[in-house]
Amino acid sequence: MSTLILSTATRYLMPLLLLLSVHLLLRGHNEPGGGFVGGLVASAAFALYTIAHGVDQAKRMLRVDSKTLIGMGLFLALASGTFSLFAGDPFMTGLWMKEKLPTIGKVGTPVLFDAGVYCVVVGVTLTILFALAED
Amino acid sequence: MSQILLLPILIPLLTAILSLLAWRRPALQRLLSLAGAAALLFAGLGLFTHVWKEGIQAVQVGNWPAPFGITLAADLLSASMVVLTGLAGLATAVYSLAGMDRQRESFGYYPLLHVLLMGVSGSFLTGDIFNLYVWFEVLLIASFVLLGLGSEKTQLEGTLKYVTLNLISSALFLAAIGMLYGVVGTLNLADLALQMQSARQPALIFTLSMLFLIAFGIKAAIFPLFFWLPASYHTPPAAVSAIFAGLLTKVGVYALIRVFSLMFAQDMERIRPVLLTLAALTLLTGILGALVQKDFRRILSFNLVSHIGYLIMGLGLMTPLALAGTIFYMFHDVIAKTNLFLFSGVIHRMRNTYRITRLGGFYASHPGLSILFLIPALSLAGVPPLSGFWGKLVLVQAGLEEGQYLLVAVALGVGLLTLLSMGQIWAEVFWKDAPIASESESAGAKVLEPGPWLLFLIPMGALALLTCLMGLFPQPVLKLATQAAGQLIYPEAYIRTVLGGRP
């Protein structure tokens, strides 16, 4: 199952893929990218790890249960919509920080929503992947 | 304060999320499900009182102005349907505590149930036709999994039929939305109502109306598109079929009412004959199907189809009185149908079979339960003074006023045949002596402990009580139905609220 070439390559590829996924997540508001694509790239990283080291190792690497990740992602998305209620605006109104943060750019509640989507995509993809790999 | 409109959507979502996070702890999930369903009912009641006092409410989600953003809107019909969603949801949640097996619980029954409730509430509250499509998908996906959950052979067969036909319906719905957008260039329901008045392509608009009729007709199970319903509703556990029977077809009918009253009111002359013919055929085929069935839940399923005919009849007549009748009948039907399916589950629990020829003797062994069953059953048949009687009375009166004598005759005849169908269940399941149970039946039959008994009896008793109350004091409900129908026939207030003062 595991070969030296694959496991060595994975060691270098996985951090790169994860970094790329975060990059895609953060640039996604106005440019191509976003939570969905970012989540898929992150899942691809874990898929690679699963192929190289097996399901159990990959699960240990993820640390949380993939279903918990779905729930957390949904919760983030829900929470991002409710912030505006406290500001007196309708549900899901986008609230933005006035100042840009260095390297990340402008941050607002839609980023939180995208982060939620990211988690849901990773959670769903890995739940399916682990179930298939365990069979 | 109009943000209260969001609660019936957010509460089930939050409940689903929390029970997803509590994936490995079924006991906690049960508690969450109960609390979530109760909160949904209270939110629905809160929304209803708000709409009753302050008139129609609208929220522009994300602060994008209508008609460009997505609007949520609640008039009396939406608000009361949300209350019924909460009611059916709570009844099912309580019933599921004792009625759901461990295996289904551990594979996410509770999160799915609440996603379904979210989809149903969302469909009732949205003021945007594409958003309606999205809510339909939410509730359909949840219902696909709920129907197939457990993977019994009959279940998978039923699910396959259900999924296929509903996907066709969704495709048609989406195509219709695309065409509609091509014709008038808007998706907001209130804006659509305005634009359609000045649209000048009568042939295209008639085509559109028929496309919507087919798309929603499949979901509402009207003739000749209902075959998926009796093929699938008898396969999942009783709690699942109860919530499906109570709510899902009604979402289809609600969508028909909303779309036809807002968008096609001026084309009603041409649409009416189609609707009335379909109503009569739905009434007849449904009840004739019910009379030849031998499975408890298949009888109920065919009755469900048949009684959709009454709802379509009121929609087709499209007078204030007829719509009031449809709305009243919808209230009655949600409560009575949910209850009857819950009853079938309890019976199955005690004898491990749904075949009415294999059942019997319940009047001798459980007289109280038998009398309780008679309330929704007789109400369905329209026996005064139960709730079904008043709904039928109003619809028949509306039919007579419009001179639709043949349709009225069919409606009355179907009422009698429903009585016959319910009488058949009564005679077979409750009255005749119990046949000797076969080995497989007695192996799966369970003696009910007092705890589960109570969890079964509370929702069934509460729903039966509501049926009685609606029958004994029909005046307030009729007043509500009349006002809700008034808001549908004269949509100016709805349009003004949604578009925010624009003419």
Can you give me a brief rundown of this structure?
The complex is a heterodimer of chains A (135) and B (503). Chain A has helices at 4-27, 35-53, 55-62, 66-86, 109-134.
Reconstruct the topology from this structure:
The complex is a heterodimer of chains A (135) and B (503).
Chain A: H1 4-27, H2 35-53, H3 55-62, H4 66-86, H5 109-134
Helix pairs in contact in A: 1-2, 2-3, 2-5, 4-5
Chain B: H1 7-21, H2 26-54, E1 57-61, E2 70-74, H3 76-99, H4 102-106, H5 109-125, H6 129-148, H7 153-184, H8 189-198, H9 202-220, H10 228-232, H11 238-263, H12 268-292, H13 296-317, H14 320-351, H15 362-365, H16 367-381, H17 387-401, H18 405-431, H19 439-444, H20 450-472, H21 474-489, H22 492-499
Antiparallel strand pairs in B: 1-2
Helix pairs in contact in B: 1-2, 1-5, 2-3, 2-5, 3-5, 3-11, 3-14, 3-20, 5-6, 5-11, 6-7, 6-11, 7-9, 8-22, 9-11, 11-13, 11-14, 12-13, 12-18, 13-14, 13-17, 13-18, 14-16, 14-17, 14-20, 14-21, 16-18, 16-20, 17-18, 17-20
Q: How does this structure look, described?
A:
The complex is a heterodimer of chains A (135) and B (503). Chain A is an all-alpha fold. Chain A has one domain (4-134). Chain A has helices spanning 4-27, 35-53, 55-62, 66-86, 109-134. Chain B is 79% helix and 2% strand. Chain B has a two-stranded antiparallel sheet. In chain B, helix 7 runs antiparallel to helix 9 (202-220), helix 8 packs across helix 22 (492-499) and helix 16 runs antiparallel to helix 18 (405-431). The longest helix of chain B has 32 residues, at 153-184. The chains are: A mainly alpha (135), B mainly alpha (503). Chain A binds chain B through residues 65, 67-68, 70-72, 74-75, 78, 82, 84-85, 89-94, and chain B through 3, 6, 10, 13-14, 16-18, 20-21, 23, 59-63.
